[in-house]
């Protein structure tokens, strides 16, 4: 599996991964699918802060980050997203994506990475714990999808100096 910066031409495959998660799971609270064009815009804007996992010439996962909140006090805090195709899970690609993303984040001046995880996704909580993230909070019933109120688990990792 190859981990590399995303290219705008990866947007169709990334949209496929993202939109399947939106349609079929409670992993994300959003119900809005994304177009390849909007994802291509994100890739262009984020540069190396948008990484993909490629296997057999196919994008099977991605990880990216953006600013956690607005305002100069949050300049060194980023919130990330990571999603994998189901067949790519358990192959080490997620770990490698996060390692690459952390490296880019450090070079970008990030001090903290934040993960907002659906409590309906305990595998993601375990995954992040294994990568050194600490659970710092749980926000009951802040998400709503499929007629259900959902909890958000907040985790963070202090990157510190490399």
From TrEMBL:
<dbReference type="GO" id="GO:0016747">
    <property type="term" value="F:acyltransferase activity, transferring groups other than amino-acyl groups"/>
</dbReference>
<keyword id="KW-0012">Acyltransferase</keyword>
<feature type="domain" description="N-acetyltransferase">
    <location>
        <begin position="1"/>
        <end position="160"/>
    </location>
</feature>
<dbReference type="InterPro" id="IPR016181">
    <property type="entry name" value="Acyl_CoA_acyltransferase"/>
</dbReference>
<dbReference type="InterPro" id="IPR000182">
    <property type="entry name" value="GNAT_dom"/>
</dbReference>
<protein>
    <submittedName>
        <fullName>Phosphinothricin acetyltransferase</fullName>
    </submittedName>
</protein>
<keyword id="KW-0808">Transferase</keyword>
<dbReference type="Pfam" id="PF00583">
    <property type="entry name" value="Acetyltransf_1"/>
</dbReference>
């Amino acid at each position: 599996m190859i981990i590399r910066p995303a290219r705008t031409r990866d947007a169709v495959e990334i949209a496929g991964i993202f939109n399947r998660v939106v349609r079929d799971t409670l992993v994300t609270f959003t119900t809005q699918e994304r177009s390849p064009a909007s994802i291509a815009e994100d890739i262009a804007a984020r540069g190396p802060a948008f990484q993909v996992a490629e296997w057999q010439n196919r994008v099977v996962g991605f990880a990216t980050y953006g600013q956690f909140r607005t305002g100069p006090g949050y300049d060194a805090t980023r919130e990330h997203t990571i999603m994998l195709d189901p067949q790519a899970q358990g192959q080490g690609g997620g770990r490698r994506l996060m390692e690459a993303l952390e490296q880019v984040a450090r070079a970008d001046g990030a001090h903290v990475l934040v993960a907002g995880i659906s409590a309906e996704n305990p595998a993601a909580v375990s995954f992040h714990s294994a990568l050194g993230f600490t659970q710092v909070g749980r926000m009951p019933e802040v998400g709503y999808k499929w007629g259900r109120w959902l909890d958000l688990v907040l985790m963070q990792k202090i990157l510190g100096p490399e």
